[in-house]
Amino acid sequence: MLELFSRIGERVLGGFYRLGEATLLILRVFGELPHIWRVHRETVAQMIRIGIGSMPLVAVTSLFTGMVLAVQTSYQIEEYVPEIFIASAVCKATIIELGPVITALVISGRVGASIAAELGTMRVTEQIDALETMAVDPVRFLLLPRFFSGLVMMPVIVTFGCLIAIAGGYAVCLLYLEMSSVAFFQGMRQFVYPYDIYSGLLKSFIFGGTISLVGCYYGYCTSQGAEGVGRATTQSVVTNCLLILIFDYFLAMLLFPTAG
Amino acid sequence: MQSVIMELAGVYKSLGGQPVLSDLSLSVPRGETLVIMGRSGAGKSVILKHMVGLLNPDRGAVLFDGRRLDRMRRAELQQARKRMGMLFQSSALFDSMTVAENVSLGLRKHTRLGEKEIAAKVEAKLAAVGLAGIEQKMPAELSGGMRKRVGLARAIAMDPELILYDEPTTGLDPITADAINNLIIETRDKFGVTSVVVTHDVNTVLKVGSTVALLNEGKIIFSGTPAELKSTDNPYVRQFLEGRAEGPIKVHF
Question: Does domain B31-53+83-242 have CATH number 3.40.50.300?
Answer without folding.
Answer: yes
